[in-house]
Amino acid sequence: MNWPKELKVRVNYPLKNKTTFRIGGPAQFFSEPKDIPELKLLLELSRKKKLPVYILGAGSNLLISDKGVRGLVIQLGALRFKDIARENGFIRAGSAVLLGRLIRFAQGESLQGLEFLAGIPGTLGGALAMNAGCWGHNIGDLVKEAQVLGKDGRLRTLSAKQIRFAYRKSSLADYIILSARLKAKKGSQAGIKKNINKYLTARRLTQDLTWPNAGCIFKNPRNKSAGSLIDLCGLKGRNIGGAFISQRHANFILNKKKASSGDVLRLMRLIKKQVSNKFNLILHPEIKIWP
Ligand SMILES: Cc1cc2nc3c(=O)[nH]c(=O)nc-3n(C[C@H](O)[C@H](O)[C@H](O)COP(=O)(O)OP(=O)(O)OC[C@H]3O[C@@H](n4cnc5c(N)ncnc54)[C@H](O)[C@@H]3O)c2cc1C
User: Confidence class of residue 58 from pLDDT cuts 50, 70 and 90?
Assistant: First the structure.
C-alpha cells in the first residue's frame, strides 16, 4: 500500500513501548502527522483504503494484542499538538500535552483546580476521551470547549454543553481531540503545590507502580470499588503467565514477566468470573483493548 512520502507512514511499527503495559504487537501503519492538514490527509486516505484508524495518546490505558493492530495508528506527537498557553482565565492546551506538564503549567500561572490529575500518566487527549479522574473529580468538569476533528475531516469547536461526559466515558472519543480550553481558578502557587503533593502521596500509598501496568483494569460498579471486590475474592497475587494481580491494588494487573496480551485477557476473564459468582456483579473494563 502506497502513502505519500511526506506523511512518513511507517509499516509494521512496534507499539509495545508506546504503552505503559509494555505489551502488544505492531501497527500495520503508524504515523505522527506534523500538523492538521497532514492529519486530515491521513484520515482521507485511510477512508479510501478502508483502514481502521486508532488514536494513540501516551498509551497508559491500553492493552494491545500481541498480534498487533490492522489499520493506521496515529499519534499526535508533533509540537503543533503540544502547545500550552494561558488565555484570559483559561488554559488552552494541545491534546498531546502530558497531564504532568499541564499541572506544572497551571501551577506556574497560579491557576488551581487541576491538581487531582497529578500522577495520571496520560495526555490531555487521552484524559478527555476517557474522562479521566480521581478523588471524586473528573477532567470533564474542567472543560470549557474542545477543538476536534471529525472522522469526516471537519474541524469543530464543541462547547461544554455539546459534550457528554460520564464515568470514564466521553462523547469526545468519537472525534480526534486536538486541543481544549480548561477552566481554572486563581490560587497560590504554594497551595497548588501542597495539593499536588497530597494527591501524589495518596497515589503512592494506594497504587502499585513497581511493574508496567495500565492503571485500573475495571471500572468501579456503582457505589463499589472493583479493587475491593477482587480483593474479597482472594485474588491478590494471582497470576496467569507473566500477568499478576497486584498485591497492593487488586484492580491493577502487573506485567511482571513478559506477559502476553492473552495472559492479561485470561486473567481479566478469571477476575470477571469470580466477581460475578461471588457478588452477582459484572465488571466492565476501564482499559481500552486494541483491536
Ligand atoms: C499508573 C497509572 C495510574 C492511572 N491512574 C488513573 C487515574 O487515577 N484516573 C484515570 O482516569 N485514569 C488513570 N489511569 C489511566 C490513564 O492514565 C488515563 O485514562 C489517561 O487519561 C489515558 O491517557 P493516554 O494519553 O495514555 O491515552 P491512551 O491510553 O493512549 O488512549 C486511551 C483512549 O483514549 C483515546 N485517545 C487518546 N488520545 C486521543 C485523542 N487525541 N483524540 C481522541 N481519542 C484519543 C485512545 O484512542 C484510547 O481509546 C492510570 C494509568 C496508569 C498506568
Answer: very high
Is the C-beta atom of 122 inside 6 A of ligand 1?
yes
Summary count for the chain: helices (H), strands (E):
6, 20
Residue 134 Cβ inside 6 Å of ligand 1? The answer reads yes
The span from the CA of 133 to the CA of 118, in Å, is 10
Domains of the chain: 5-75 (3.30.43.10), 80-205 (3.30.465.10), 209-290 (3.90.78.10)
If we measure between CA atoms, which residue out of 66, 56, 7, 3 comes closest to residue 31? 7
pLDDT of 1 = 75
Label the pairing between strands 84-87 and 90-94: antiparallel
- Return the residue whose CA atom lies nearest to atom 45 of ligand 1: 126
Whether 8 contacts 114, CB under 8 Å = no
What is the tens place of the pLDDT at every residue in 214-262?
999 999 999 999 999 999 999 999 999 999 999 999 999 999 999 999 9
User: Does residue 55 have its Cβ closer than 6 Å to ligand 1?
Assistant: yes
